[in-house]
Amino acid sequence: MTEATPAPIAAPTASSTRDRLLDAAADLFYREGMHIGVEALCRAAGVSKRSMYQLFDSKDEVIAASLDRTAAAYRAALFPAADDAGSPRERILHVFRRLEALSVDADFHGCPFVAAAVELKVPEHPGSLAARRHKNALIAYFRHEAEAGGAQDPAELSRHLTVVFDGANSWGVVQGSGTDGLAISMATTLLDAAGMKDTAG
């Protein structure tokens, strides 16, 4: 009985090349900064510069796309599941508890979107626009839960919570020892002041 001929290994597709490039970009930009050059990025991704420029017009576009790629995993790490039965108050505090847990990890370098915007400095840079879009998604999440929880001023509360979140990220990076529960306690104070009840939504 003859052995079946192994199926040929498929040649890399444009989508797999794009995935490898964006995965490498998200990792390198977060760990080392946006200054990473195209050659180093392509080497880490295992793709050629020619392939990169066939997919993206510039490194700026790669930065923006890598932040978009980071967003889904970042939200999954922070937000409760969509079918979570917790109260709106608990769904907000869940984000700060997750931040506390993440902030003690050796690979924690703060919020990737704030880090990108700070380093890029130009508000209209494609990466800055992507960072703002994803920070606004966090504000929208807080506002949605604040409205569901009967907060006195959901719009104001959502902005205050985001400021606490971003400040806690900075604290964790600068101090190098986590957020020490500060974000959780400050968020709790804001929720209490806004009149959000700890009941199931």
TrEMBL record:
What keywords are annotated for this sequence in UniProt?
A: DNA-binding, Transcription, Transcription regulation
Lineage top rank: taxon? Bacteria
Q: Which GO terms describe its molecular function?
A: DNA binding
List each copy of the HTH tetR-type domain by range. 15-74
SUPFAM superfamilies per the record? Homeodomain-like, Tetracyclin repressor-like, C-terminal domain
**DNA-binding region location:** 37-56
PANTHER family, per database record: HTH-TYPE TRANSCRIPTIONAL REGULATOR YJDC (PTHR47506:SF1), TRANSCRIPTIONAL REGULATORY PROTEIN (PTHR47506)
Record protein name field: TetR family transcriptional regulator
The scientific name of the source species is Streptomyces tateyamensis
